Amino acid sequence: MLSKIPLILEVMSKEDCRSGSSLSEECYEFIFLVTNAHEDGVITLFESGGMNVLASQMPILPDGSHAMELAMKLVQLTVSKLPAEKVFVGYPSELSKMVSAIAKQFALLHNALKFEALHLLSTILSSSHSGVLHAALLSMGDDWSTRIRIGVIDVLQNRVVPAEKLHALVLAECVISFVGEEWLIGPATLPGAQSSMPDVRCILLVLESSRVEIAVMLNELAYLKYEASKNSPINSEAFLGKLRNVGVAFSLVERIIKLIAKFSENEESNSTFNICDSTSTKMIRGLNETIGVVLDYLQDAKDHGEKKGNDLLASVRIAGSYLAEAPDACNEKVKELLGYMLSVEGENESSPFHSISFLLPMLCQITMEDDGCKLFASTGAFGAVVGFLISLIDTSSARIDNCSSSTVFLACDTVLNFLLKREQLRFSLENSWSVKLLRALIRWTEDTMEPSVIMMASSICSLILDSTSERDLLRHPDFCADDVSALSQLMKRSLVSCGQDSMHDDTNSEADLYQIVTSGYSSWADRFPRIKEIVER
Question: What is the pTM of this model?
Answer without folding.
Answer: 0.88
